[in-house]
Amino acid sequence: MAALTGEALPRHAPLAPLAVQQAPATSDSEAAPKDGFGGRQLLAAPPAQVWQAILDAQNLQASIPGCEALAQRSPTDYEATVKVGLGPLSVRFKSDVTLHDLQPPRSLTMVFVGQAGALGSGQGTARVRFEPTPDGGTLLHWWVQVQLSGRLAQFGNRLVEASSRKLSEEFFERFSRVLGVPADRPPPSAWHSLQRLLARWFSLFRK
What we know:
- With 207 residues, the chain is of the alpha+beta class.
- It contains 4 helices and 7 strands.
- Strands 1-7-6-5-4-3-2 form a 7-stranded antiparallel beta sheet.
- The longest helix has 23 residues, at 157-179.
């Protein structure tokens, strides 16, 4: 997962409320992070359900790209083995994942610390906020910051950020599929399904 590498956000840093590459909104009492990237994902489930799903170890393992194993050590601590692509390399991280600043069902922070052996290590922080939508769904806002050390840091900021952004986006897209149909692609209505059924039935008489 992209957030396996990165610097921790300030404790009270806000999330990015808009699309990827846009800076997060600020308030009078909070300052936006100076670096990182973020986005948002529409989910067809209320915030309370999304909150429970993102704390579930099986859901996390299914959502993290390249996750080979994930074990929950406590309600807020996980241990994971994740294999990710970074430039020409395929890097396997032995990682600790810790949840901080839990404010159910509104927001939380995921902190990742990963070791890649002789290649170096990485840190990452993903700040997540759950905003209820009028139709009963959730707009999930996320903001990630990453940092690599050792030989991994030689890849350069652009490559690291591009790889991290891709993997972060994939994580939240996978998580939306764990919950079912995304809120921005609702299932057909009953009337629409009936129209399709009638159209098929009448087509039999035209043959």
